[in-house]
Amino acid sequence: MSNDPAGVFHRGMELLLAKDMAGFIALFAEDAVLELPFAPPGQPRRVVGRTELHDYLIDYPALLDVREIRDRTVHETRDPEVIVVEFVASGHVVATGRPYELQYIAVLTIRDGRLLRYRDYWDPIAAQELLGGGLVRS
User: Fold this and answer.
1) What pTM was computed for the model?
2) Residue 17 has pLDDT above 90, yes or no
3) Comparing C-alpha atoms, which of 14, 8, 2 is closest to residue 108?
4) Rounded-to-integer distance, Cα 14 and Cα 12, Å
5) Cβ-contact 75, 103 below 8 angstroms
6) How far apart (Å, rounded) are the C-alpha atoms in residues 112 and 106?
7) Which residues contact 96 (CB under 8 A, 6 or more apart)?
8) CA nearest to 118, candidates 3, 9, 17
9) How far apart are CA 6 and CA 108, in angstroms?
10) CB count, 10 Å around CB of 87?
């Protein structure tokens, strides 16, 4: 496994595309934190620890069939463990077959090849419209 933050990010995106959620979840440290500052009411704004991350993320492919992740940009920061990433995910909403496309910006803290903190910024209104008002997960 790459210890390079950009390498860890790109590996995570490949695992998402492969729908290997167990592999994606394994990229996170045991005590990792996923923060969702723009989560709509009724959805978690914080998911703590790999067990909670597993429960939150494992069924993601049953919600969204992500087929492409493009326009990936990695911005390095002064802290070698922190990167800011931008990307566009597209595919289909599983329940409806409707096209899905959403832009993301995330701030990742990566230490020793593991995600410690993943702050995910996305448009919850656009996501809810794409999902027909259903459950929103980043």
Assistant:
1) 0.87
2) yes
3) 8
4) 5
5) no
6) 19
7) 132
8) 9
9) 10
10) 18
Among residues 67, 60, 65, 59, which one has the least CA distance to residue 93? 65
Q: Name the pairing type of β-strands 99-111 and 114-121.
A: antiparallel
Under 8 Å between Cβ of 115 and 12: yes
Fold of the CATH domain 5-130: Nuclear Transport Factor 2; Chain: A, (3.10.450)
Q: Which helix (H) or strand (E) holds 106?
A: strand 99-111
Task: Delimit the domains of the chain by residue range.
Answer: 5-130
pLDDT digits (tens, 9 = 90+) for 70-114: 999 999 999 999 999 999 999 999 988 999 899 999 999 999 999
CA Rg, the chain, in Å?
A: 14
What residue has token string 């994606």? 24
Distance between CA atoms of residues 118 and 28, nearest Å:
9
DSSP-assigned letters across all residues of 41-104: TTS-SEEEHHHHHHHHHTTHHHHEEEEEEEEEEEEE-SSTTEEEEEEEEEEEETTT--EEEEEE
